[in-house]
Amino acid sequence: MARPRVFISSTYFDLKSVRADLEHFIRERGFDPVLHERGSVAYGNAEALEKYCYKEIETCDILISIVGGRFGSKADDSAYSVSQTELKVALEQAKQVYIFVERDVYHEYRTFERNRDTSIKWASVDNGRIYEFLGEIYALKNNNPIQPFETSYDITENLKEQWAGLFQRLLAQQSLSIQASLFHDLKQSLENARSLLDVVASQADRRDEVVADLLLTSHPAFTAIRRAMSVPYRFVFSDFDEFKKWIAARGYTEDSFSSDDYRSEWFRIDKNKGNTETLVVDRSIFDDDGKLKPFSAASWSDSYVTFSVTKTKSARGFTDDLDDVPF
Asked: Which ranges of the chain would DSSP assign to H, the alpha helix?
């Protein structure tokens, strides 16, 4: 199962205990922490070491930036530090970021804002470019949550709340997606009903025949088969013979051993994927003459049509998966 990868970005020596605590916290959550000192970054020999850190961020889902009082190593060809550049890379790639600033640095930044043009030796940082960079982050329109911290506990407690909120939002979005799908289906049904009324009104002399034709085109069997088989186009059939011609045209063969008076089973082998696709249709949806019976949405059951995809078995009866070989 895929797990979120969390990149921890900071200067090392002054914040190594915080980094260790965060590593433990992230592992406890079932995520994968990415720290350069743990060998999580795959270094090569073609570029500067810092470049591989930036590339590793591309494979991560979250970046946690911890800002302390040390500027750290300067990045190549840039006025920024390596840890600052890591945050910039994550922002450029629209990664989810969380930014934590040591409380003393956080509060002194307010003084910096009022004295940008003066020459002051700051008490909480070793380089004023730390405050200049914070100013750039504050100026961003989004994805720049900045929180002060004194200990690693402050960071982990904040992340607990943030990640719980992300999970709740995901669940809410899934619920809204289901509601949107239901709304779309309802809207389509209303449009179909409106079209039905318009057609019936314009064909008063052959009303019964028109209604029968319209009911056939909106038969729930067609919707069930389209969804099950992911058919990208609309189709209709009025009887079992037309159904057999349609399914055969899609490359399916009737399984005479499984088909009977109660069910009709059709299969197709996809050699490229190594799968066998099977469609089973309940014969009770057709009358004794093979005509498709009328069904309302309420009287229709999903069990009338089933579709499955299974691993194709070889001539010896075993799949190509070596894990299934019985020796």
From this structure: 16-28, 49-57, 82-92, 103-114, 129-138, 152-202, 207-217, 220-229, 240-249
In 3D space, the residue among 169, 185, 84, 68 whose CA is nearest the CA of residue 126 turns out to be 68
Strands 5-9 and 62-67: parallel
Say if residue 135 is in the same domain as residue 272.
no
Domain with 296 in it: 219-327
Domain boundary among 126, 150, 174: 150
In degrees rounded to 5, what are phi and psi of residue 37? -75, -10
DSSP-derived secondary structure letter, 238: S
Is 166 inside a domain boundary? no
Question: Total domain count for the chain?
Answer: 2
10 and 124 share a domain? Answer: yes
Give me the mean pLDDT over the 264-285 stretch. 92
Q: What is the three-class DSSP state of 277?
A: strand
| Whether 78 contacts 133, CB under 8 Å | no
pLDDT digits (tens, 9 = 90+) for 53-66: 999 999 999 999 99
Do 128 and 33 lie in one domain? The reply is: yes
Which pTM value belongs to this model? 0.55
> 200-225: b or e for each residue (b if 16 or more CB lie within 10 Å)?
eeeeeeeeeebeeebebebbbbbbbb
Which tokens sit at 143?
Answer: 């994805």
